[in-house]
Design goal:
There is one protein chain. The protein is α+β, with helices and mostly antiparallel strands. The protein folds into two domains: 116 residues, no CATH class; 81 residues, no CATH class. Helices cover 64% and strands 16% of the residues. It is built from four helices and five strands, in the order H-H-H-E-E-E-E-E-H. The longest helix is centred in the N-terminal third of the chain and has 47 residues. The radius of gyration is 39 Å and the shape is rod-shaped. The protein starts with a helix and ends with a helix.
Length: 201
Amino acid sequence: MVLNSTVAPLLVGAGIVVVLLIATLIVLTLSMRALWRTRRPARLDARLENLPPAEQLEHRLGEVERQLAGALQLLPEHQESLTAAQRAVEQLRNLAKEHEEIFDHHRQEIQDIQQRLRLALRSVAVQRYNPFPDTGGNFSFVIALVNEAHDGVLLTGLHARETTRIFAKYIAAGQCETRLSPDETAALERAIRQLESDTHT
Protein backbone atom coordinates (compact mmCIF):
# COMPACT_ATOMS: atom_id res chain seq x y z
CA MET A 1 0.00 0.00 0.00
CA VAL A 2 2.85 2.36 0.82
CA LEU A 3 4.45 1.64 -2.58
CA ASN A 4 1.19 2.12 -4.38
CA SER A 5 0.43 5.36 -2.56
CA THR A 6 3.88 6.65 -3.48
CA VAL A 7 3.96 5.51 -7.13
CA ALA A 8 0.38 6.41 -7.98
CA PRO A 9 0.87 10.21 -7.78
CA LEU A 10 4.04 9.89 -9.87
CA LEU A 11 2.20 7.88 -12.52
CA VAL A 12 -0.63 10.40 -12.53
CA GLY A 13 1.84 13.27 -12.84
CA ALA A 14 3.72 11.48 -15.61
CA GLY A 15 0.45 10.81 -17.42
CA ILE A 16 -0.49 14.48 -17.20
CA VAL A 17 2.92 15.48 -18.58
CA VAL A 18 2.57 13.00 -21.46
CA VAL A 19 -0.91 14.27 -22.26
CA LEU A 20 0.34 17.88 -22.20
CA LEU A 21 3.24 16.94 -24.49
CA ILE A 22 0.90 15.21 -26.94
CA ALA A 23 -1.48 18.16 -26.88
CA THR A 24 1.44 20.53 -27.48
CA LEU A 25 2.64 18.44 -30.44
CA ILE A 26 -0.85 18.41 -31.92
CA VAL A 27 -1.16 22.19 -31.56
CA LEU A 28 2.29 22.70 -33.10
CA THR A 29 1.44 20.34 -35.96
CA LEU A 30 -1.85 22.11 -36.69
CA SER A 31 -0.13 25.51 -36.45
CA MET A 32 2.57 24.42 -38.91
CA ARG A 33 -0.07 23.08 -41.30
CA ALA A 34 -2.02 26.33 -41.06
CA LEU A 35 1.15 28.38 -41.65
CA TRP A 36 2.09 26.19 -44.62
CA ARG A 37 -1.37 26.59 -46.10
CA THR A 38 -1.28 30.36 -45.73
CA ARG A 39 2.16 30.67 -47.32
CA ARG A 40 1.75 28.14 -50.10
CA PRO A 41 -0.85 30.07 -52.17
CA ALA A 42 1.61 32.99 -52.45
CA ARG A 43 4.21 30.63 -53.90
CA LEU A 44 1.61 29.10 -56.17
CA ASP A 45 0.48 32.55 -57.32
CA ALA A 46 4.06 33.45 -58.26
CA ARG A 47 4.35 30.26 -60.33
CA LEU A 48 0.94 30.56 -61.95
CA GLU A 49 1.12 34.20 -63.06
CA ASN A 50 2.01 33.34 -66.68
CA LEU A 51 -0.40 30.40 -67.05
CA PRO A 52 -3.75 30.70 -68.85
CA PRO A 53 -6.75 31.42 -66.58
CA ALA A 54 -8.15 27.91 -67.00
CA GLU A 55 -4.87 26.30 -65.88
CA GLN A 56 -4.62 28.70 -62.93
CA LEU A 57 -8.14 27.71 -61.91
CA GLU A 58 -7.23 24.02 -62.30
CA HIS A 59 -4.22 24.44 -59.99
CA ARG A 60 -6.25 26.35 -57.40
CA LEU A 61 -9.02 23.77 -57.49
CA GLY A 62 -6.44 21.03 -57.04
CA GLU A 63 -5.02 22.86 -54.02
CA VAL A 64 -8.50 23.20 -52.52
CA GLU A 65 -9.15 19.53 -53.15
CA ARG A 66 -5.90 18.53 -51.44
CA GLN A 67 -6.74 20.69 -48.44
CA LEU A 68 -10.18 19.12 -48.26
CA ALA A 69 -8.63 15.66 -48.37
CA GLY A 70 -6.34 16.60 -45.47
CA ALA A 71 -9.28 18.02 -43.56
CA LEU A 72 -11.17 14.77 -44.11
CA GLN A 73 -8.40 12.89 -42.32
CA LEU A 74 -8.27 15.36 -39.43
CA LEU A 75 -11.99 15.90 -39.04
CA PRO A 76 -13.86 12.67 -39.82
CA GLU A 77 -16.98 13.94 -38.08
CA HIS A 78 -17.39 16.49 -40.89
CA GLN A 79 -16.78 13.98 -43.64
CA GLU A 80 -20.24 14.31 -45.18
CA SER A 81 -19.98 18.09 -45.50
CA LEU A 82 -16.44 17.94 -46.84
CA THR A 83 -17.36 15.23 -49.32
CA ALA A 84 -20.12 17.52 -50.59
CA ALA A 85 -17.52 20.28 -50.91
CA GLN A 86 -15.28 17.91 -52.89
CA ARG A 87 -18.16 17.19 -55.25
CA ALA A 88 -18.67 20.93 -55.68
CA VAL A 89 -14.98 21.34 -56.51
CA GLU A 90 -15.22 18.54 -59.08
CA GLN A 91 -18.24 20.23 -60.63
CA LEU A 92 -16.30 23.50 -60.81
CA ARG A 93 -13.42 21.69 -62.50
CA ASN A 94 -15.77 20.19 -65.10
CA LEU A 95 -17.33 23.60 -65.65
CA ALA A 96 -13.87 25.15 -66.12
CA LYS A 97 -13.03 22.49 -68.73
CA GLU A 98 -16.27 23.19 -70.59
CA HIS A 99 -15.55 26.92 -70.57
CA GLU A 100 -12.01 26.32 -71.81
CA GLU A 101 -13.41 24.34 -74.76
CA ILE A 102 -15.81 27.21 -75.49
CA PHE A 103 -12.94 29.73 -75.26
CA ASP A 104 -10.84 27.61 -77.65
CA HIS A 105 -13.72 27.55 -80.12
CA HIS A 106 -14.16 31.31 -79.88
CA ARG A 107 -10.41 31.90 -80.26
CA GLN A 108 -10.42 29.81 -83.44
CA GLU A 109 -13.39 31.76 -84.79
CA ILE A 110 -11.65 35.06 -84.04
CA GLN A 111 -8.50 33.85 -85.82
CA ASP A 112 -10.58 32.86 -88.86
CA ILE A 113 -12.29 36.26 -88.89
CA GLN A 114 -8.94 38.06 -88.61
CA GLN A 115 -7.56 36.01 -91.50
CA ARG A 116 -10.56 36.89 -93.67
CA LEU A 117 -10.26 40.56 -92.72
CA ARG A 118 -6.65 40.58 -93.93
CA LEU A 119 -7.91 39.59 -97.38
CA ALA A 120 -10.89 41.97 -97.44
CA LEU A 121 -10.65 45.26 -99.33
CA ARG A 122 -10.74 47.57 -96.32
CA SER A 123 -9.48 50.88 -97.67
CA VAL A 124 -10.86 52.94 -100.56
CA ALA A 125 -9.43 56.18 -101.95
CA VAL A 126 -10.82 58.24 -104.82
CA GLN A 127 -8.74 60.71 -106.84
CA ARG A 128 -10.54 62.97 -109.33
CA TYR A 129 -8.63 64.93 -111.95
CA ASN A 130 -8.74 66.45 -115.44
CA PRO A 131 -6.05 65.03 -117.77
CA PHE A 132 -7.25 66.92 -120.87
CA PRO A 133 -7.14 70.73 -120.95
CA ASP A 134 -9.93 70.93 -123.55
CA THR A 135 -12.51 69.33 -121.22
CA GLY A 136 -14.12 71.00 -118.26
CA GLY A 137 -14.40 69.54 -114.76
CA ASN A 138 -12.59 66.72 -112.98
CA PHE A 139 -14.54 63.90 -114.59
CA SER A 140 -11.61 61.48 -114.80
CA PHE A 141 -10.97 59.43 -111.70
CA VAL A 142 -8.86 56.80 -109.96
CA ILE A 143 -10.34 54.43 -107.36
CA ALA A 144 -7.83 52.52 -105.22
CA LEU A 145 -9.03 49.50 -103.21
CA VAL A 146 -6.51 47.65 -101.00
CA ASN A 147 -6.52 45.09 -98.19
CA GLU A 148 -4.30 44.76 -95.12
CA ALA A 149 -1.51 43.14 -97.16
CA HIS A 150 -1.65 46.14 -99.57
CA ASP A 151 -3.05 43.92 -102.31
CA GLY A 152 -5.92 45.24 -104.38
CA VAL A 153 -6.91 46.97 -107.59
CA LEU A 154 -6.82 50.38 -109.23
CA LEU A 155 -9.77 51.46 -111.39
CA THR A 156 -8.90 54.38 -113.64
CA GLY A 157 -11.48 56.21 -115.73
CA LEU A 158 -10.30 58.63 -118.44
CA HIS A 159 -13.03 61.02 -119.54
CA ALA A 160 -12.72 62.77 -122.89
CA ARG A 161 -15.22 64.79 -124.89
CA GLU A 162 -16.48 61.83 -126.89
CA THR A 163 -15.49 58.75 -124.84
CA THR A 164 -14.74 57.50 -121.34
CA ARG A 165 -12.33 54.62 -120.94
CA ILE A 166 -11.91 52.55 -117.78
CA PHE A 167 -8.77 50.56 -116.93
CA ALA A 168 -8.09 48.10 -114.11
CA LYS A 169 -4.63 47.50 -112.66
CA TYR A 170 -3.72 44.78 -110.16
CA ILE A 171 -1.85 45.83 -107.02
CA ALA A 172 0.35 43.37 -105.05
CA ALA A 173 2.05 44.45 -101.81
CA GLY A 174 1.54 48.09 -102.75
CA GLN A 175 3.19 47.73 -106.15
CA CYS A 176 1.89 47.50 -109.71
CA GLU A 177 3.48 45.61 -112.60
CA THR A 178 2.75 48.50 -114.94
CA ARG A 179 3.75 52.13 -114.58
CA LEU A 180 1.32 54.30 -112.62
CA SER A 181 0.36 57.85 -113.41
CA PRO A 182 0.86 60.52 -110.72
CA ASP A 183 -2.88 60.47 -109.91
CA GLU A 184 -2.93 56.67 -109.65
CA THR A 185 0.11 56.76 -107.36
CA ALA A 186 -1.52 59.44 -105.20
CA ALA A 187 -4.75 57.42 -104.87
CA LEU A 188 -2.87 54.22 -103.99
CA GLU A 189 -0.69 55.95 -101.41
CA ARG A 190 -3.72 57.58 -99.79
CA ALA A 191 -5.54 54.25 -99.56
CA ILE A 192 -2.50 52.64 -97.88
CA ARG A 193 -2.15 55.56 -95.46
CA GLN A 194 -5.82 55.28 -94.50
CA LEU A 195 -5.42 51.55 -93.88
CA GLU A 196 -2.32 52.02 -91.73
CA SER A 197 -4.03 54.82 -89.78
CA ASP A 198 -7.04 52.57 -89.06
CA THR A 199 -4.72 49.73 -87.96
CA HIS A 200 -2.84 51.95 -85.47
CA THR A 201 -6.06 53.31 -83.93
